[in-house]
């Protein structure tokens, strides 16, 4: 049984992932206790569904951000409640996931005012509302409910999203880029994840269809490609040059994949990078656009961190803007840009809002995208409204403008400070180097683990970076994700740590991390 | 090109669907105008992605509820604005989809109060709030935000949903059934559709895996099975006996599928029925449970219309209650029950809330379900909150109780009246017979079309029922969905019409429908 389960885990993209993840999953599939069941049709288990007879793509798929380490953390959290004295820390600090509000970030007031008014439009007719809500939130809520047919904020919308909201979003994109956007190109989705799944589903016919993905990557991509039965074609970001994206590497990997009979359909670029935090230079982006055009690849641009730029010399440029500024239109480049309400300064993860802007698809393929969207009816309206708000926040002269800018600025400048403090602390650790987080919400330090630690990890059937992260968790309550969950150059080890704990917590985290690392190195130093 | 596109549309489950849908889809895929593009790698189209090189399962999938007829209706709606005098009606009436609030149904006040307070929890601290909101909505909102770690209503939750809300839902299920439910069995989802997709994805390994589905069925099931590459094994509901579900038919179809090498994994039962409106008798449900247990099938129970019962002699019994009352526990029957905030008396479609209660899976498979849920992070929090509210509405003694009961009762009794009025009107039409809507939101009349009409439809390369529905739309503005989109006994023709237009609109709809039908029959009578 163990062997047959293991047999299913083939063709993973990164040797380090294959080697260590197999063992991890393997370990987690408990053999099912045998119970006879005469009534069951050809099955020796009491359950008709077992890990041996489900979709092998589901078994194979991995999502480390909420994987084994988080399960361990949740168990530890329970234990902490039951036996507070058994641990040297009094809480679990979740640095595994970009979930700002779970770590105390406050929502943007204007956004929440508008959402509340749209949820309960009866408030709009009451005089007391004036005292409770800003004038522009009331005005905006009126605009939005008027854009919804019958003012029905509880009805399914058009499967691409409410037309008026798509117009607002398109206008926001136009303002951002200096090039117009078409509301009919916008598909509102429950966060960016379902949009990514939709594209993978559309493009993947068989395991011979490949998607070029950065390594390290955000594991939604590897998970989605696996679930849809496709092939992840890796291209490595260059850690030495601050996680640079080299066209020569893209070419090499594309040719290599093609020589193996893989039909490469698309290139995923995450900008700003997740987990790597780099912000692409415009020149680099032009080369990427040219590459996709020449090679007939769909450019899947994950731009959900577009507001999260911390390096003063860096600026976000959307791939749409870059390609249009090169004179390329719908007929020249097929481009999908993903945006989310979960990230940015707003961090409204739980609202599950987002959109994709889909350009350069033929009308018949667009119709297929629409059809798949229609099977799921529509994205949730609260998320739709929020997606329109982040692309059209308060403007100069609006009552909320100043408080909005103060909230926004406070969050972004604090994130920049936190990123720097954690980066410096990591670079002070023995054997650790950490590139700057120019953008996004993460640091992805490299840890040079002593041979003794690697052997100890092997003895525990754990990847060395997972071994380190589990030790860190047990010693400090800090949850970070092993680099093997994102992919890395074989033989190198990393972890991803968010920059999201509130500022006043950073010094304690740095102390705990530093103390742990010293002890770890003392234990395992070769 | 046309031939190769058509070649992909094989193995559809119902001959009438195969014959007519092929032509419909076929018709909609426009050949792409040839443009040379020397830079493109091995592709004669300017677009790297065409209908010829996308996932054939996407191409093949159909979802009639938002299909061709709705596209026609939307175009007609635009034309109605531009040329109001060119039509004998002044609006489009969407009876194609169960979307109550789009047709004027008002949301339940208590639910919206709670949602607004949770969206903008700062309101909870203000004195003016007392004057604007009911006391129990404020109390409930406090309870809910206190159940959310850090009161962060904008954070990703646990991937199964917020623990406290799952506890509320489990308690609601326990109260409904008289048997306890476990919060750990609840997976909150963005409406019921993603939950159905998750199960199809889990159970389908290849096209040799089959799912028993009623015919007629809600086309989410056929679409999801197609998208996941599985095989729909049909069982026919008996129209003569009010869409009865016969165990002998299940057995026959199961054996037939098995004899063809299909491994049948699950049985879908929709109760109350969609599009058919029948409510299953408890005795019948026991036989279904026994059948699934004996044959080792997962019972996928679509119970989203559990509050929509109109026949006074009928009562909803959940399959969980039925199986537990037979003495069957987790080890005896694998059962998934789907529930949604979109239906019932609340009809909160746009909020995308729902859950599945997953029982009788082995722990290792449960872990896989959790993993897939975690890749999508979590369901939207607004929908999660609403799902907890519908399973725990105001109780006797709460300030909102009486107004809540009045709103709820008003909606449900009006739906019963509308169902009856439309059913009577349909039964008065020449050649039309319509079973009672005992529950759910639809009527599914059978229309006996004259041979001349069938020939005229063939000439237009349209299914005869689609031909009728398009004629109806063009003559009256009423949008209904052809029976071929749901499946039907070959050679019979139906359409699905919701009972959702507001009561005062029903007489005009009946008049328009009756006049149209008379003219249609006069034109085509053999």
| Largest protein-protein interface | A-B, 112 and 110 residues
Distance between the termini of chain A: 39 Å
Q: What coarse outline of chain A follows from CA principal-axis ratios?
A: globular
The structure class of chain A reads alpha/beta
Radius of gyration of chain A: 24 Å
* Oligomeric state as shown: homodimer
Number of helices of chain A: 19
**Count of beta strands of chain A:** 14
The overall average pLDDT of chain A, rounded, is 90
Strand order across the biggest sheet of chain A?
2-8-7-6-5-3-4
> Could you list the spans of chain A in which at least 5 consecutive residues all have pLDDT below 50?
1-43
- Measured as a percent range, the helix fraction of chain A is 40-55%
- How would a textbook summarize the main sheet of chain A? 7 strands, mixed
Relative strand content of chain A = 5-15%
Provide structural commentary:
Two copies of one chain form a homodimer. Chain A has 526 residues and is an alpha/beta fold. Helix content of chain A is 43%, strand content 11%. The first copy, chain A, is built from 19 helices and 14 strands. Chain A has a seven-stranded mixed β-sheet, sandwiched between helices. Chain A is globular and about 70 Å long. The two termini of chain A are 39 Å apart. The model of chain A is unreliable at 1-43 (pLDDT under 50). At the A-B interface, helix 3, helix 5, helix 6, helix 9 and helix 10 of A face helix 3, helix 5, helix 6, helix 9 and helix 10 of B.
